[in-house]
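Subject: sequence -> structure tokens, single chain

Hey, anyone have a minute? Need the predicted structure for the following. Not urgent.
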Amino acid sequence: YECTEFPCDRLRRLDLRYRTRYGMSEIENLEYIRKEGMNKFLKNEAKRWISEKGLFCVHDRNYYK
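Reply:
Had a minute. Here:
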């Protein structure tokens, strides 16, 4: 998000792929980090992706311990 061209074309293409395949936005994540900070982002991500089953991987939809 600190890049002078944020979001650049390369990031927009990556973001489109992730929104389409995984229902998540890399650009939204970076905007959240810019606004709220990395620590808050990481805490929220841990709540979102880690459970008693393990760490959820969006790429293969499996949990890992």
